[in-house]
Design a protein that fits this description.
This protein is an alpha/beta fold and 579 residues long. Helices cover 43% and strands 9% of the residues. Helix 4 packs across helix 7 and helix 14 packs across helix 21. It binds nicotinamide-adenine-dinucleotide, (2S)-2-hydroxybutanedioic acid (LMR) and magnesium ion. Nicotinamide-adenine-dinucleotide (NAD) binds next to helix 14, helix 15 and strand 8.
């Protein structure tokens, strides 16, 4: 791989066709000789701008948009016009603009997809067109070197549920983050949405809805569709033409996320962000927090509220790390976890009908709960569990905004000196507790990390503000994915993920100063993901999963040298070139 800055691109487009092609368009930054070669001299105003000047102008235009959603729409249009300018602008204002193109604002853009629609981006594999799936796939990928597929069926978008075809919005946002933070060349990434209908009544009743207006396909018909996808897409096409690509699954429903991951894991480099990315970033934040409390992972009593895709992914990742780092058996490590779902504590007497198979190893025995008050259905509420087990760690991934009430947080703070509290549900309004409140209710003692960005908290007794770490999988997945891609890894193993999480934890500001944030700032996210990619690539080589001719001590050079950057490449007209 080489960066655009170092290699001229040969392009077969001319006139308007190059000006409307977001990959090659430079707008007013086309230099005079390229204007001449591509027939643009009379199509552009005289003055040639630098990318820096274009970014300044675009930032001024953006600033006139008065709501986050309007800014999001503006940036989407900019991306449709000129990738280099889009990524160049966001890179220059990373911390300010990531929340606009990603969580929380992208949730609103997704929910309003059909109304904001201007121009399509990505690949739509729709249930009614399934017989044409192979051709639809080839149309967009033929002859291309694809390194990344980001794929969603939109059943569980962020915490806002089934969003039908609007789910394309999460795959393009995740892809853009791969480019910004992981250096993936955007021309080598494809966002895919599987439109299998929706059960979202608002969408179904909306005559402007642009997806397939049908109830969500489930059961055998869904499995058949996925099977077709597998036969048409993964086996002959992806493996044949893009054998080293990474297949990233995002925001599938709880019943499909883990199943798909397990199914594909041995066949290709696959990654489920909600399970593995979330597990990894939460592990890093927790490693950092136990560094502050000077304890071990094994010493924690961990309460996970919301035992869905993310909740179980986090639990297993933390459990596996305890086994690996503190050297105990899985059964021993499992005892450190208490899971809650909509039916309260996950305990034996709920019966197997309520508890998903995947949760079985974390079911708590009934005799532990004798004498603890229950509701009329025999369920144990969050407050009762907190009072009984005195958790050191409380993690929220329930989509229930405000579920960590004052009473619950104060009870937790009574049982432990430095409560570790991670409200991870997105977007911001679904956070289980506003970190500012948790800070006040714990007298500034809580160690916190949240799924979406929140402002720093004032210390109740003066002193330094507490920076709430953003514990979002975007802080780690671009590096995990890029580390796998650059080494052409045959799979993305658990040890590669743990290596990435450990590297992330080692970069935490709290390591040096216990009053600082538990994770690095998003302003540094590109550097952080580069380091993560290096750790992952080294681990892939150590494990024998890499398929590259170079050695471990060359990893850093390859990782850094292979990263795409938003810089205009030199363009040369060639009738047989790219188009
Ligand atoms: N910070 C991150 O990086 C990150 C990553 C992934 C997911 N998330 C967030 O986590 C949330 C969950 O995502 P998911 O993909 O796991 O969704 P999911 O639907 O698979 O899981 C949500 C779980 O919460 C449970 N739940 C619902 N109401 C509850 C209640 N009152 N009490 C306890 N549990 C309840 C549901 O039954 C379900 O099991 C979302 O808001 C998502 O944005 C954050
Ligand atoms: O998309 C995010 O912001 C993180 C995560 O994947 C989620 O589903 O919330
Ligand atoms: Mg997600």
């Amino acid at each position: 791989m080489s960066t655009p800055a170092t290699r001229a691109l040969r392009v077969a487009l001319h006139g308007d066709t190059i000006l409307t092609h977001p990959r090659f368009n430079k707008g007013t930054a086309f230099p005079a000789h390229e204007r001449k070669a591509f027939g643009l001299t009379g199509r552009l105003p005289f003055r040639v701008n630098t990318l820096e000047e274009q970014c300044r102008r675009a930032y001024d235009q953006l600033s006139t948009r008065d709501t986050p959603l309007r800014k999001n729409t503006f940036l989407q249009s900019l991306k449709d016009q000129n990738w280099t300018l889009y990524y160049g602008l966001i890179s220059r204002h990373l911390k300010e603009l990531i929340p606009i193109i990603y969580t929380p604002t992208q949730a609103d853009a997704i929910a309003n997809y059909s109304h904001l629609f201007r121009r399509s981006e990505g690949m739509f594999l729709s249930f009614p067109n399934q017989d044409n799936m192979e051709e639809d796939f080839l149309e967009q990928t033929r002859g291309r070197d694809i390194q990344l597929f980001v794929c969603s069926d939109a059943e569980a978008i962020l915490g806002i549920g089934d969003q039908g075809v609007g789910g394309i919005g999460i795959t393009v946002a995740k892809s853009a983050i791969y480019t910004l933070l992981g250096g993936i060349d955007p021309s080598k990434a494809v966002s895919v949405t599987l439109d299998v209908g929706t059960d979202n009544e608002d969408l179904l009743n909306d005559d402007l809805y642009v997806g397939w207006p049908n109830g969500r396909v489930r059961g055998k018909a869904y499995d058949k569709f996925i099977d077709k996808l597998r036969r048409a897409f993964l086996q002959p096409l992806v493996r044949k033409y893009h054998p080293h690509s990474l297949l990233h699954f995002e925001d599938f429903g709880v019943n499909n996320a883990k199943r798909l991951l397990d199914y594909y894991r041995d066949q290709h480099a696959v990654f489920n962000d909600d399970v593995q990315g979330t597990g990894a970033v939460t592990l890093s934040a927790l490693m950092s927090a136990v560094g502050v409390t000077k304890s071990r992972l094994l010493d924690q009593r961990i309460l996970v509220y919301g035992a869905g895709t993310a909740g179980l992914g986090i639990t297993k990742q933390l459990r596996d790390a305890i086994v690996q780092i503190d050297n105990v058996s899985e059964a021993e490590a499992n005892k450190r976890f208490w899971l809650h779902d909509r039916y309260g504590l996950v305990k034996q007497s709920l019966g197997i009908n309520k508890i998903r198979d995947a949760l079985q190893e974390f079911v708590r025995p009934d005799d532990e709960w004798e004498g603890v008050p229950t509701n009329e259905k025999g369920e144990i509420g969050l407050f009762e569990t907190v009072r009984k087990i005195k958790p050191t760690v409380l993690i929220g991934c329930s989509t229930q905004g405000g579920a960590f009430t004052e009473k619950i947080i104060r009870e937790m703070a009574r049982g432990v000196d430095r409560p570790i509290i991670f409200p991870l549900s997105n977007p911001s309004r679904l956070a289980e507790v506003n970190p500012k409140d948790a800070n006040d209710w714990t007298d500034g003692k809580a160690l916190m990390a949240s799924g979406s960005p929140f402002p720093p908290c004032k210390h109740p007794h003066g002193g330094k503000d507490y920076i709430v770490a953003e514990c979002n999988n975007a802080l780690i997945y671009p590096g995990l994915g890029y580390g796998a891609m650059i080494t052409q890894a045959r799979s993305l193993s658990d040890s590669m993920i743990i290596a990435g999480a450990r590297r992330l934890a080692s970069l935490s500001p709290a390591l040096k100063d216990p009053d600082s944030a538990l994770l690095p700032d998003f302003a540094d996210a590109r550097m952080v993901n580069t380091e993560i990619a290096i750790a992952v690539a080294e681990q892939a080589i150590d494990e024998g999963l890499a398929d590259i001719p170079w050695k471990r001590d060359e990893v850093r050079d390859h990782v850094m040298g292979g990263m795409w950057e938003p810089v205009y490449p030199e363009l040369v007209y060639d009738k047989d070139g790219l188009h």
